[in-house]
Amino acid sequence: MKEDYQISIEETIEKFDTDRKEGLTQETVDKRLEENGRNEIQEGKKTSPWKLLWNNINDLIVYLLLAAAVISFLMDDLAETIAILLALLLAVLTGFFTELQAQKSVESLQSMIYTTITVIRDGKTQTIDAGNIVPGDVLLLREGDAIAADGRIISSNNFACIESALTGESEAVEKSADDISEEEVPLGDQQNMVFSGTAVTRGYAYVIVTETGMETEVGKISGMLDETSDEKTPLDIELDKLSKAIIVAAFIAGVAVLVAGLITDKPFVEMIHIAIILAVAAIPEAMPAVETITLSKGMNTMAQRKALVKSLPAVETLGATSVIASDKTGTLTENQMMASELVLGEKTHYEVTGEGYDPHGSVKKDGEEIVPENNQDLMQFIQSGVLCNTAHIDQNEDGQYEVVGDPTDGALVTLGKKVGLEREELENKGFEKIAEVPFSSENKYMIVVYEKDGKRQLIIKGSFDVILGLADQTQETKDNLQQQNEMFAAKGQRVIAIASIENYDGGLTEEEMKSSLDSLKIQGLVGIIDPPRPDAYESVESAQNAGIKVKMITGDHPKTASIIAKDIGIADYEKITTGKEIDAQVDNENFAEVVDETAVFARVSPENKMQIVSALKKESEVVSMTGDGVNDAPALNDANIGVAMGIRGTEVAKEASDMILTDDRFGTIVDAVKEGRIIFDNIKKYVSFLFACNMVEIIAIFVSVVFLLPMPIAPLHILFLNLIIDIAPAMSLSFEPAEDNVMARGPRSKKDSLVNRHFLTRIVFSGVIIGLSAFALFWILLNGNQSSEYLQTAVFTFMAVAQLMHIFNVRKTNSFGIDRSFFQNKALLGSIALSIALQLVAVYAPFMNDLLGTEPLRFVTWLGILGAAIISTVIVGLFNKIKYHH
Fold first, then answer.
1. DSSP letter, residue 620
2. What is the pLDDT of residues 141-174, one digit of tens each?
3. Which family is it part of (predicted)?
């Protein structure tokens, strides 16, 4: 079945049972509105707060803590029960409130469906609510109108639209009712169609509505957003694995303790209680709180650096980024057409500096800045471009410069402003426009006639090939101009020729002006580009040096895409794949491999972008997808990290993304990746710290049971260590500065996980050494005449001191943690001091003695505690240095 852009106007009228002059009857409209629904985008599905809460309750750690609390309650240990329930609430509520953030939805797509539209119904032209448009309606679209539905053009005059939000292309697209394609073509090449969410830049057209609501291209994109499901982040997966691993270890230890106790005729209830203590010791109750605070700090740091991260897990995922798949238009480039180079006469060459529509810039010749006012020919040429023009450049509320009208015209207006020429001022100085032929896709040029002081000048601006064919110049001159044109085109520039007839004495009707063009003289050529962002090259280089692949994705022509990719330094820029090639290969077994090896993707559709992201993820890449248009939204939503532009980005793109760049700089992404890597390094440090501390408690208890000794530590002591003593130092590790090599190494692979042999060995060895030291201290003190409370207080205090000292073995990846930077981390200094003070309160404050069952320690016991803690810290440090830091 043929698509709407492949059929004739008469077939379209017949298909939608409408009338090109009368439109639909109100009766037909009512019937179709009932059948098709309103012309609106449906909201995405939301997760209820109750479901979010259940997701946090339905967790193995929560069930273990709940079981421990129930058993403690049944054993009449109220203080222990309350402490375990507090730990449980901390674990559940931290996760719940983290996830209870603004739900991503496609509500902003509603803003793409505008409130009113001009329509012909019952033979009358009327303005209606855009939500009431139905298929078959005949719309009248004029310059400046926002388009509220997809439709087939049935007649037009000099009609063009900006479709960059959907296609990613910067230039206005010429539209024509008669441009029918027999073959399948991408959306950007469907020149007899208009699309919801785009805008009219020139002329007018009558259009038959073909799709409304969710069936429009914008609606389909909304559907794609709704279909994608949230995935666990790399960090979630790793912490889940590590938690399960340590819980399994605790379960094995608990079973072993239970068996040992039963063999030695210990009471069954006592052994169950000991097993519960082991389970509580194993569970990292502080982990959710520390993770949330660490990621929140990273979120704030990124915000200060112009990157707004919308979810906490995304902060860490950024650090794992191995591919940045970047939209070209508006991300790597300005999405603003700019006059980049000029040629006057045959060979006089000039360069123009500046950014997009910003009127600040200069003109250079041979690399040297010149004063344009001193060059009459140059000023005359630029003046012609300003006069033969209808565009305006305005500054919006955010201080950004925007074009009103055709982007190419906007480039010439901006060029004029850079040398002090503006159309309004010229007209105030006596230039009077007395005739005009607007630009049209048929002519491919615009003509104006200006009169000043009794003299008339005809100016024509348009396609180089057309103007060259009309010009009255020698073949040698034309050959030289053709060479200049090819030079500009080779750089990916759009070439505009400007010509004139001085002292014009012809007629002023369109036919009379056209018949006079055989005496045209070409003044010069303008090379117009959508320029790369000023920092793009440096940022791409930084990313690639950090081992991150940069891939460019665009709706532009392959040649233009390749030239831009080369200019900004993308490696392997000549490796290009088009949307058609993707469609042909998507089902092949090696498709993911082809995508991974491609550097530039051109002429792609929104579906292609999603296919690219999915293929890269299949290749085990962690993908950051950047973009600013409606067409980018599905891929932004599907990527591990979706990054939207904050200034030029559409609301749809922002809603679909995980991160918004408030300065639109590609370099900000690289800065965010660096921060993500720092965060992951610091997460590894506090995970290593917390789990090693939990291992200490498990080892000490397990060995004591095996040797048939009393409990070396009480359950409340374990909870105090896990929730009071360890949490502040663990949080302070999130303030550790970047390691020297953070951006010199490649991205971490999925194999470089937290649960690898290297990392687990360090945790287990540290826990075993400190745990055996705790047992040794306990065994030595058992030979004295001390109460069980005093012995448990000594072991409890040793664990607090040794665990605080263990920070020096985790805060630096490749060295011992006492150096100058230690004193720069004020949070760490403060947290250690706080933890020591809290431990002293637990040991010496009478009310804490009653609550925790502790007794004040004597000086000689402190000497033993400090000695054992120093010895265990040195042993762990030497092991790490010998085994991992040759």
1. T
2. 987 777 889 999 999 888 888 787 677 666 778 8
3. Belongs to the cation transport ATPase (P-type) (TC 3.A.3) family. Type IIA subfamily.
Burial class (CB in 10 A: 0-12, 13-18, 19+), 41: buried
Pairwise CA distance, residues 770 & 561, whole Å: 59
What single DSSP character describes residue 445? E
Measured CA to CA, the distance from residue 599 to residue 472 in angstroms comes to 45
Residues 6+ apart with CB under 8 A from 111: 651
**Cross-strand bridge partners of residue 712:** none
CB burial of 754-788 (b: ≥16 within 10 Å; e: otherwise) equals bbeeebbebbbbbbbbbbbbbbbbbeebeeeebee
How large is the average pLDDT for residues 729-740? 82
Q: Is the dihedral of CA 747, 749, 755, 757 positive or negative?
A: negative
As beta bridge partners, residue 451 has 432, 456
Lowest-confidence segment of 219-228, 402-411, 585-594 by average pLDDT? 219-228
CB atoms within 10 A of CB 320: 24
* CATH code of the region 338-529: 3.40.1110.10
For the domain bounded by 235-305+677-737+753-884, which CATH number is listed?
A: 1.20.1110.10
Region 98-118: mean pLDDT is 47
CA angle at 478 for the pair 473 and 480, rounded to the nearest 5° = 130
Cβ atoms 842, 765 nearer than 8 A = no
List of residues 6+ apart from 339 with CB closer than 8 A = 352, 411, 412, 414, 415, 526, 527, 528
Look at residue 197 in the predicted model and tell me its pLDDT. Answer: 77
- Tell me how crowded residue 370 is: count the other CB atoms within 10 A of its CB: 14
Q: Where are the beta strands (DSSP E) in 328-427?
A: 338-344, 348-352, 363-365, 368-369, 392-395, 401-404
pLDDT for 587 = 87
Architecture of domain 307-333+534-664: 3-Layer(aba) Sandwich (3.40)
Catalytic residues: 327
Which of 621, 626, 614 shows the shortest CA–CA distance to 328? 626
At residue 43, φ and ψ (nearest 5 deg) are: -70, 150
Domain covering 4-43+107-226: architecture: Distorted Sandwich (2.70)
Rounded Cα distance between 556 and 622, Å, is: 25
